[in-house]
Amino acid sequence: MEENGQLDQLLHMKKTTHATTREHASRDLETFPPPMASSRVAVIGAGAAGLVAARELRREGHSPVVFERAAGVGGTWRYDDAASADPLGAGGVHGSLYASLRTNLPRESMGFLDFPFVADEGSVDPRRFPGHQEVLRYLEAFARRFDLLGLVRLETEVVSVRRRVDGAGAGVAGWTVSYCSRKLAGGELQEEEQSEVFDAVVVCNGHFAEPRLAEIAGIDGWPGKQLHSHSYRVPDQFHGQVVVVIGYHPSGMDISRDIAGVAKEVHVAIRSAPCGMQSTTAHANLWLHPMIECAEEDGSVVFQDGSRVKADSVVHCTGYKYRFPFLEEDGMVSVDDNRVGPLYKHVFPPQMAPHISFIGLPFKSILFPVFRLQSNWVAGALSGRIELPSPEEMMLDVMAFYSDMEARGWPKRFTHNLGVEAWTFEYEDWLAEQCGLDKMEEWRRVIYVAARARVSVRLESYRDEWDDDQLLAQAHNDLSKYL
Ligand SMILES: Cc1cc2nc3c(=O)[nH]c(=O)nc-3n(C[C@H](O)[C@H](O)[C@H](O)COP(=O)(O)OP(=O)(O)OC[C@H]3O[C@@H](n4cnc5c(N)ncnc54)[C@H](O)[C@@H]3O)c2cc1C
């Protein structure tokens, strides 16, 4: 939705605050029931966000039901081979992990605040930046430790979420959640669609499943193969090839190195690269370039500085799109250039708060603790323990945030990027204050900031060499009270 549309919403809210007609009923917050000590809540997704949401909701006295379309919990951290048959990721596979993936944060700062992510006797990978299997093990342990598995309905995909108008047409009486579950019956896999009514909905469906591709002039006539990082698993298919990788965020950095181990040459196109081909120190066959100008029918890929290579494959490490296919398209929440909005503090659509909320949209922060704070905020707002501003005030805050972004020249796609400025942890601290919880520990912040800084100066070794042992000892000391 465009900003003008959001302004219209604000004006509309002002006009209809006291509306009683059926036409206005579903647009007026006051027609939702008042906060309830215990709400029945549908949580969509059982990744890190959905699991911690379920925990916080139940702690608050609510009754969450978690819908998860996969066969297990863990979301992104469930390694899934299947995507390799689907080069540009159009097949609906959720997982985006490659086989060699290790975390890009040190484990002690990455974990939930009161459930430390530390190596123990059950660890499958005790390293400080462990492989993905260890993160899945951790999330499964989290679910077991807080007895969440019984709340999760596996192999059950939410297909639609609709507001319900009550019998008299005077107000909104919760949400109808329709879902499709897969069951084995008589040796055959059967799908069954059903609907249930909930007081509230918490959306935790993740945002690393819908690939965003780079637009390349001439790519349709270019004869090589293309792949998105969503579908990349292992480098074998690139043996002896000349490969162009687009993008140099964490996945691009890892995948280009993975491929350089078997390919003849790897050329990485980077938005911020200086002109001219740059070699990298640790890999003699890996070069950095500016972005791609065009691709040609003879197999050439031409970069913006005029340099060119004849390439066999292009790998798009160009990120993902937010997507909510199960939400009704009535303009209340929409996605515009990866801005999900309007949302108050990345969580609540002002007109429907707190009855529908989004957990897990931000990126570039210490995400698991952020998800926990967002979840506590939602749970508290639903029960009435935490008071939200009026819908008008929330919308004004959203508009002010958008104006501020525009004034700074930030594109819309940075809306949910918490790391866009200095590492101030302003959002995280604000959430903690709303919830009446302790702020994130100082050691966690410093370790995180130092780890991010090491990536740019020691890309090849940042996961295995560090110089913050003192902070690490402090972290372990602090976390030991939860072990
Ligand atoms: C390659 C990669 C590397 C990463 N590395 C790190 C890292 O090192 N450290 C870090 O902290 N973070 C990392 N992240 C970020 C990671 O996404 C978060 O850590 C976190 O796991 C996101 O959790 P989530 O619950 O929001 O989403 P997800 O983990 O994606 O979970 C969403 C869940 O919702 C389910 N779902 C979706 N739609 C429906 C539906 N309609 N009905 C039912 N279920 C549905 C999905 O099946 C999935 O299980 C990485 C991400 C990627 C892609």
TrEMBL record:
<feature type="compositionally biased region" description="Basic and acidic residues">
    <location>
        <begin position="20"/>
        <end position="30"/>
    </location>
</feature>
<dbReference type="GO" id="GO:0050661">
    <property type="term" value="F:NADP binding"/>
</dbReference>
<keyword id="KW-0503">Monooxygenase</keyword>
<feature type="region of interest" description="Disordered">
    <location>
        <begin position="12"/>
        <end position="34"/>
    </location>
</feature>
<dbReference type="InterPro" id="IPR036188">
    <property type="entry name" value="FAD/NAD-bd_sf"/>
</dbReference>
<dbReference type="Pfam" id="PF00743">
    <property type="entry name" value="FMO-like"/>
</dbReference>
<keyword id="KW-0274">FAD</keyword>
<dbReference type="GO" id="GO:0004499">
    <property type="term" value="F:N,N-dimethylaniline monooxygenase activity"/>
</dbReference>
<dbReference type="GO" id="GO:0004497">
    <property type="term" value="F:monooxygenase activity"/>
</dbReference>
<comment type="similarity">
    <text>Belongs to the FMO family.</text>
</comment>
<keyword id="KW-0560">Oxidoreductase</keyword>
<keyword id="KW-0521">NADP</keyword>
<keyword id="KW-0285">Flavoprotein</keyword>
<dbReference type="InterPro" id="IPR000960">
    <property type="entry name" value="Flavin_mOase"/>
</dbReference>
<protein>
    <recommendedName>
        <fullName>Flavin-containing monooxygenase</fullName>
        <ecNumber>1.-.-.-</ecNumber>
    </recommendedName>
</protein>
<dbReference type="InterPro" id="IPR050346">
    <property type="entry name" value="FMO-like"/>
</dbReference>
<dbReference type="GO" id="GO:0050660">
    <property type="term" value="F:flavin adenine dinucleotide binding"/>
</dbReference>
<dbReference type="InterPro" id="IPR020946">
    <property type="entry name" value="Flavin_mOase-like"/>
</dbReference>
